[in-house]
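Reopening closed ticket. The problem is back. First fold of the pair:
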Amino acid sequence: MDNLLEYNLEELTEYIKKFGHKPYRAKQLLRWIYHFNEDHFELMTDVAKSFQDTLKNNAKIVTPEINFDHLSSDGTRKWLLDVGGKNGIETVFIPEEDRGTLCISSQVGCALECTFCSTGRQGFNRNLTSGEIIGQLWLANKLLRNQENYNHLDLQKRVISNVVMMGMGEPLTNYDNVVHSLEMMLDDHVYGLSRRKVTLSTSGLVSAMDKLKKDCPVALAVSLHAPNDNLRDELVPINKKYPLKELISGCLRYIEFAPRDFITFEYVMLKNVNDSLDQAKELIKLVKNVPCKFNLIPFNSFPNSGYECSDKNMINRFKEVLMDAGIITTIRKTRGEDIDAACGQLAGKVQDKKRRSRKITFVHQ
């Protein structure tokens, strides 16, 4: 049985054509799947019976299965999703007064081995398919619209207004599936999200950034985390392949195509590692030619991380140095801490090779 979440409009048109159905049926089907979140073909009331029968016999709408569904006291909602083979991924919804942001994963684990990131410590299992990526959005949208806790959001508008590819994995190492899913998010026949409201977070794969800016430019967040190559080589090992000079040049090239006129630099605050005021001044010199804003991320520790979070006072002083230089700088709020949904605390249970249950903390910072 074919999973229809794997198909964009063009692919779905070709798929139904082989069963003898007319192209307009593809748009009709997409509307039911994505605008009405319907996964039962017999409930698609304006779809011809013959078309319903074809779909029931050959296709289905498959999303990852829910292992855990937790709601925080602050409204943050976290799902641990099963994508088969005892592989778990995390999806998190963060509601705010003016928007609802969904953080989705692109891989099971991550191969980049950033030293402060527990997903990197877990290692890499596999890429997600485009259907598994878009399936997180489909599932969250359906569940949220049925949840009374979000009745402060106008359901005539989008519950999920923003999507960030900032969950497990490095999106640009799963390039084809990620771009396919991004294109579907932007397609008016699917979700019709604005490019400005879809953000991809990367550790700095410059060659893929250059490709993305032409294929599917969306808002870009770059995990910087260090002001110089020596330290970034240690924290973000991909820097050895794409050092800061190349990364900054890649950011400048990306802005020419980006829907926003700035790059967001993410910077995890590690006590006595990358948080000195001299390092803040070094950052200012590094990004002086890049239209940008900084998002400072208080580090959320995990077992045997080897790092501590910077003191609150130091984070504020670090912010002030950047702000005084004219760089817009924010400190990421801690959300969903009571359900381990804060960045660095996304926890699920997986089975290790000895079939003992162990706790794994997922994060892409």
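Second fold of the pair, where the issue appears:
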Amino acid sequence: SIIGFDLARSGQFAPTPPENMLSLPTRPADVLFRDWRVLGDEYVVVGRSEMEANGNLSITYYLFDIINERQLASEKFTGPVASAREMAHMVSDAVYEKLTGIPGAFATRIIYVVARNLGTPSVHFTLEMADVDGARPKTLLESREPILSASWSPDAKKVAYVSFESGRPAVILQEIATGNRTVLTNFP
């Protein structure tokens, strides 16, 4: 469902709903090209997930060109069960890049500011980080004062933003993993 949602959200693909599929293959040998042509599909992604003996989860996908009846790509991702969502986004990135020539951004994160109760005495701002599809939001900072212009550091391990916590604008650099904050500038 994550992969289908990612690809549909890109606006470049219209995944066939599972209830409309004639079969649900999980291995290359199970792909019947004529079934997918009947549905009007040009490409098909099939895959499987398995628990390995060491407790890790492996996700393997196969990308097929239905018109030319050939496999275009295959890759296996392995990691802790807790990283299943990230691995699904990585599959989406790989499929997107293979079909468009443009690197996918589904395995990335976004930062944004949420402003609640504007214009009231209980105004509240939070700096949030989430998967690019909005899932798994995490609050990085809460404040009663505005937070503006959040931006990633080049290594994506820190975020810079403008905070008015001191009553005047200050540029803050915050480490995402630890929450440690450094005031870079404090404007009058």
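Update: turned out to be a display glitch only; the data is intact. The chain is about 15% helix and 40% strand. The radius of gyration is 22 Å. Please close again.
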